[in-house]
Amino acid sequence: MYKIFIIMFVMILTTVVNSSAKGNGNMDNPFFKKYSTPLQTPPFKEIKFEHYQPAFEEGIKQHKLEVEKIINNSEEPSFENTIEALEKSGDLLTKVANVFFNLTSSNTNDAMQKLSSEMAPILAKHGDEISLDLRLFQRIKKIYEKREKLNLTIEQNTVLEKYYKDFVRSGAELNDTQKSELMKINEELSVLTIKVGQNILKETNNFELVIDNEKDLAGLPDNLIKSASETAKRKGKEGKWIFTLHAPSIFPFLTYSENRDLRKQILTAYANRGNNNNDFDNKKHLSRIAALRYKKANLLGYKTHADYVLEISMAKSPDKVFEFLDKLWTPALKMAKEEAAELQSMIKKEGKDFKLEACDWRYYAEKLKKEKFHLDDEMLRPYFKLENVIQGVFDVASKLYGLKFEKRNDIQIYHEDVTVFEVKESDGKHIGILYTDYFPRESKRGGAWMNAFRKQQKVGGKEVTPIICNVGNFSKPTEGQPALISFEEVNTLFHEFGHALHGLLSNSVYPTVSGTSVPRDFVELPSQVMENWASDPEVLKMYAKHYKTGEVMPDELIEKIQASSKYGQGFASTEYLAASYLDMNWHTLTTDQEQDALQFENTIAEKINLIPEILFRYRSTYFNHIFSGGYSSGYYSYIWAEVLDADAFEAFNETNIFDKNTAKLFRENILAKGGSEDPMVLYKKFRGAEPSVEPLLKKRGLE
């Protein structure tokens, strides 16, 4: 139900943050008129902060009138006058929400964060008023009950079923008392989830590791030192070095710093975000969220929040997810213990007698990797100039799907770091617009993501092309040196570009099922399958070129990448799976009693026998995905989708990685279809059979 739930959908996919605005100026408000920009892209230069609140208010007002008109239609309910009419409704609200919530994730400020908090309960109430309206539900129900006689297309049938189920799952069949209780729960959740995300951003920005003794930089790569120096200069501390909790700073520091005390200091700060008993503490917020989610699920007739969420996923039930995680956990933990023993031996070999801790893992793992494979990440970085990697991923898409990417300098951007590309078919036909925004800043939340400023659709015969953004937090350029990103960041860029292709190559009629509007454990297939091309030798030779000489990455280095591809998979799999267990346990609670967050987390760690040398990839207090994003009971989906992507890439390997026919099948049955059909049906249309888990176990070395 894209139009009705667009606000909540955008808030879920982007980490929303708060703001306040009173304003008039409706006459010059760019949201109130058709954009006059190229391809009707958002006119960022014209949009002022004071435009948002009036646009939200008018958007809600118009949407209410449009829905009332549908409800009061005296004609017999039909797909066209009810479902299709709902798909067409709420355009203004969608228009302002898409801009506002994208920017609260990628270019926010205190005012926008405040307005976000103020609008959250208003938007939640608006969504509830529509989804709990019995008159509207009765129209939808009448259509649903006679659907087999309506001669609907597969997509129309899917959209109708989704509307019906979403209304039921939103409480349309509850009595008035229950509806009132549900609305209160939704309102409180809308505020709390925003608060958690804001607190994580503030905690991340608040910490600085300031180094004023050059000896404490021992072991750190030159580019990291240079970046830290520039950060210090920017913050008025010239002559010093500042390291932060943003990924391009903390993780290289943990990997290369020879100063164990400083590694411990920065990791402790990272691991305690949202857990400092200050104004940004998340413990009570997240415990309340879990309790409210249980109450909501229970009110709607579900045993747990996970049962509610997973009903519309590929997994279908919590038991299925736990069974899947257990199958991977045993070999992953066994491998992690073996890796820990190797790292402890290396510590001993160096003549040191301390016990391996979490702050040591990356440092010694990198040293061991260099010893075993004569390879470390800094050897690769000179070959991964950001512009070359971007061109590389474009070239892959061109060879697979015939796409062209043309830089547009005439389209407005929301920040100087943003670049805009027009995406076209090989014959020059316009497909959509792609914004890329890859550098960290204090106004941007951590991580990497894809979202849409406008979704693809053809409802009512009107062709609407997509406007997609890819956002990341990669290593920035430094003085005299371009942005040289790590191999992990390369994989992330390919991953998010896979999501972008899912949005760009969508070919649906209805926005409710277009692009990435698919079950959570299916949405990661298009993104994760792209990572396979990132490390393929043939593809590396296309884009991995030394930034100084232009020399293509030598075969020797590529062979080392291949040889080391399974190295460290015990650690990587264990920290990820541990977070998946944490998510599932928070959301299979069968009580609305608020938990002691730290005690709960420790209990789960003991329950799964997580070794102390490895932390949860995300501890509860900064688990943005599940307490502020849309992945509650769904963090497992990354590795679920990895089963699909490993099996899907096998299809290309059976011929060649740029096989046109296989790419055509993938585009037509996966990328173009969105959520218009059952995901397993779509997958089998592409692959000819259900996926096998064996390629994943082989890929991770867990067989």
Structure in words:
By secondary structure, this protein is mainly α. Helix content is 55%, strand content 5%. It contains 29 helices and seven strands. Strands 3-4-5-7-6 form a five-stranded mixed sheet. Strands 1-2 form a two-stranded antiparallel ribbon. α14 (318-349) packs antiparallel against α23 and α18 (487-504) crosses α20 (525-534). The longest helix has 32 residues, at 318-349. It is globular.
Q: What is the terminal-to-terminal distance?
A: 41 Å
Report the structural category: mainly alpha
Low-pLDDT runs of 5+ residues are: 2-25
Q: Mean pLDDT across all residues, rounded? A: 94
From the alpha-carbon coordinates, what is the Rg to the nearest angstrom?
25 Å
Largest sheet: 5 strands, mixed
**What strand line-up does the widest sheet have?**
3-4-5-7-6
Q: Based on CA inertia axes, which overall geometry fits? A: globular
Please estimate the helix content.
Answer: 55-70%
Strand segment tally: 7
The total of helices stands at 29
Q: What share of the residues does DSSP label as strand, in percent?
A: under 5%
Outline of the structure:
This protein has about 700 residues and is mostly helical. It contains 29 helices and 7 strands.
Task: Throw out a few tags for this protein.
703 residues; mainly alpha; five-stranded mixed beta sheet; 7 strands; 55% helix; disordered N terminus
Produce the secondary structure layout:
Elements lengths: L5 H8 L35 H23 L7 H10 L2 H16 L3 H22 L2 H12 L8 H16 L6 H31 L2 E3 L10 H13 L6 E3 L3 H10 L3 H12 L11 H17 L5 H6 L7 H32 L8 H16 L3 H4 L5 H16 L2 E4 L11 E6 L5 E8 L11 E6 L12 E5 L15 H18 L15 H4 L1 H10 L2 H7 L11 H9 L5 H18 L10 H11 L16 H4 L9 H17 L6 H12 L7 H9 L6 H7 L3
Parallel strand pairs: 5-7
Antiparallel strand pairs: 1-2, 3-4, 4-5, 6-7
